[in-house]
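Hello, quick one for you while I still have it in my head. Could you read through the record and tell me how the tokens relate to the sequence? No rush at all, and the record is pasted right below.
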Amino acid sequence: MLNNPKNSFIFWISILVIFISVVVIGNANAMDSRSRSLFLYGISALQLFFSFGLMYYIYKKAAGFWPVTTTRNCGKTLAVYALGLGILVIALVLISSFTIRKNDLHIDLSTLAWVIVYQFVFISLVEEVIFRGFVFSSFPMQPLKAILVSSLLFALYHWNNGLISMPYFLSIGVLLAVFRHFNYPLYVLVIWHALFNILNQTLLPFDGFRFGWLPFYTVMPLFFIGVACLSGWILGRIDNKRG
């Protein structure tokens, strides 16, 4: 159960926004390419407006929202280390993408700048504020419930990507929520999320993925869940030593 009326309000208004977004995006898929793009840009702008409007209305100022409130605090140093680790992992994936299937890389330099802005501001920022912000923070002192609920809703939010992709997005949500539980600033998760999306959209050759779609959606969720468990174990031990 939610602990207080404020958390309940935040949670259910977030559920409403998620549901409306899924329905609207699903209907937008029937539009022609140009109309669909313009429509989705508008939806993203409305989501951004909602996210920051609710954030300032509830928390009065951003400084009171971006840190997470849990029973544990690993400190800013770990966030810096984690950010460096994320960048390193992305760099390794970039190298492998160039060496494995150079001819299949999907890079359009004329739109790359817009992709970067769009992924950082309209996708990753919005999704992290909603899922690892509003939804996660609706369950203070209930870390397991916060991780599971925010991750399940994150997966359902991507319903229009197909049922086969649900475990994939669920596992990514779990990984991000684990870091959120250990007091990683929201901006770090926004950066990770955006870089990962940009990598997927511009560099990784998903249309000609060498392992095929089914193995990808089978292996990758297990990989992300494994990383989440390992990260939680390591951060928990570090946190206990500092405590």
